[in-house]
Specification:
about 170 residues, five-stranded mixed beta sheet, three-stranded antiparallel beta sheet
């Protein structure tokens, strides 16, 4: 007499990884957005290989997906079931907060998801480009009216309009 017993081994757990912390960054030097190299993560799975890592984020209602790569990393013990998930760049992140979602999937189709926030701030002051010398002629009453923009030679700010104010720096008997 014999008995048939079926033993089924299932991998129903997604990969594990530490979700990146929230990030605050400044804008690019040439515009009011940020191109950011997203953090890499070390991914592990107890039962199967890691199949893929992707990142998703939305800008103005449009969802962008970045397909990351899986690679080895320096000092990695090849007998340990871990790998480095490299995402790459998220381009044109706007001012304010953007939620970024990482999705890691193993060969059995199990996925793990985490989200973190990237905040882009205008951390750069405006660039003031002014006339070094401006000569004016006084009127008969000894006064002159000069617009503040007369002293501007192309001042700019990447994220907001530039306003001008002018005042005399030292007192004068005139």
């Amino acid at each position: 007499m014999y008995h048939v017993q079926a033993i089924q081994v299932l991998d129903d757990q997604g990969p594990t990884f530490a979700c990146p912390d929230d990030i605050t960054v400044g804008t690019n030097t040439t515009d009011c957005e940020r191109d950011l190299n997203l953090p890499d993560v070390i991914v592990e799975d107890a039962c199967s290989r890691i199949q893929s890592i992707t990142a998703e984020y939305k800008v103005n209602g449009v969802t962008y997906t970045i397909n990351g790569t899986l690679t080895n990393f320096p000092g990695n013990n090849l007998w340990t079931p871990d790998t480095l998930g490299v995402i790459g760049f998220a381009n044109n992140l706007p001012l304010g907060s953007t939620d970024v979602k990482y999705i890691v999937t193993d060969d059995c189709g199990n996925s793990s998801v985490c989200s973190f926030e990237v905040t882009v701030e205008d951390q750069a002051p405006p660039a003031a480009i002014c006339d070094e010398f401006t000569q004016v002629s006084l009127g008969i009453n000894g006064m002159v009216l000069i617009n503040a923009t007369t002293f501007d030679d192309g001042s700019y700010d990447n994220c907001s309009p530039v306003a001008f104010k002018v005042r005399r720096m030292d007192s004068n008997s005139c």
